[in-house]
Amino acid sequence: MKRVAFVFPGQGSQSVGMGKDIYEQVSDTNEYFDYADEVCGISLTSIMFEGPKETLTKTENAQPALLLTSVLLSDILKKEGVRPVMTAGHSLGEYSALVAAGALTIKDALPLVRHRGQLMEKAYPEGKGAMAAVLGGELETIEQVLKNIRENGQTVQVANLNCPGQVVISGTKTGIDKAAEDLKEAGIKRVLPLNVSGPFHSQLMKPATEEFKSALQNAAFDNAEVPVYANVTAQPVIDKQEIPELLIQQLYSPVRFQEIVENMIKEDIDAIVEIGNGKVLTGLVKKIDRRMKTFSVQDLESLSEFVEWYKEES
């Protein structure tokens, strides 16, 4: 049997039309769409299928929409006999990874990520925080520039370690603007502002942690059936006692996606499969190790193509 790892995308991968073919063609999933609408108190389903894009992009809507699509695709794969030997997710995607690994149910995960999105939105005043992608340059150089800015009183830090040559930074808008200037002076030419509503994965998210901690305590976690690689440590976790604390730390800590992929590849896997909307993580995996076989399962058509490969005789 082939050994595959499932990885799940985070916020930014959403798009209008996501999940529609699942809803229309796999009738036993409809109860989950209805449940998501109930949890969100709005017709999340119609926002997913018809937009508008601005409403879908709101953190509190994008997060449950992405989790729903990812988890339902993962469930369909399990019914086809496809089971991962390990899972991971990028930021929000870690919740989909936990559901796929049996550590959390979709019915617990949906209200959690909806609440997480709301808390992240209000943790820091709108327009006062920012994020930017730093393309090229050594991590050591980036860290030194950010350290100098912090010493002058601004909050700015590394938020995502995505792949070689791609680091995302997060902090106050003033700090990010200053970092863009100073990084360019240090020889790093491309610093691109990201269209996000807050300084995610930075210390500025700490106000969200206390309320979210109580929400996590009310969720029923189980031990994972397969290892889930945590964003915070890039190491596998199975123990249900450890998972909630890692999810709290994830709010204000860097996503160590490059390390996660490197650690997974060491475990002798045949493919890394991105499950959910978009192809962002597939692109990152190829930049980390271009020899690694990848699949992007984002709808029923791509799911069918992957299942065909999975069931082929080696």
* N- to C-terminal distance: 8 Å
Shape: globular
CATH homologous superfamily title of the largest domain: Malonyl-Coenzyme A Acyl Carrier Protein, domain 2
Structural class estimated from helices and strands:
alpha/beta
| Reported CATH architecture of the largest domain | 3-Layer(aba) Sandwich
CATH fold group of the largest domain: Malonyl-Coenzyme A Acyl Carrier Protein, domain 2
* Rg calculated over all Cα atoms: 19 Å
Strand elements, count:
10
Biggest sheet details:
6 strands, mixed
* Low-pLDDT segments, ≥5 res: none
CATH class of the largest domain: Alpha Beta
**Count of helix runs:** 14
Work out the strand percent. 15-25%
Q: Which descriptors apply to this entry?
A:
314 residues; Malonyl-Coenzyme A Acyl Carrier Protein, domain 2; six-stranded mixed sheet; Alpha-Beta Plaits; 2 domains; four-stranded antiparallel sheet; single chain; alpha/beta
Account of the protein in words:
This protein is α/β, with parallel strands linked by helices. The chain has two domains: 4-123 and 204-311, Malonyl-Coenzyme A Acyl Carrier Protein, domain 2 (3-Layer(aba) Sandwich), CATH 3.40.366; 129-196, 2-Layer Sandwich (Alpha-Beta Plaits), CATH 3.30.70.250. Helix content is 47%, strand content 15%. The chain is built from 14 helices and ten strands. The chain has helices at residues 20-25, 30-40, 44-50, 53-57, 59-79, 93-100, 106-122, 139-151, 173-185, 209-217, 243-250, 257-265, 280-288, 300-311, and strands at residues 4-8, 86-89, 129-135, 156-163, 166-172, 190-193, 228-229, 236-237, 271-275, 294-297. The protein has a six-stranded mixed β-sheet, sandwiched between helices. Strand 4 (156-163) and strand 5 form a beta hairpin. The longest helix has 21 residues, at 59-79. The N and C termini lie close together (8 Å). The mean pLDDT is 96.
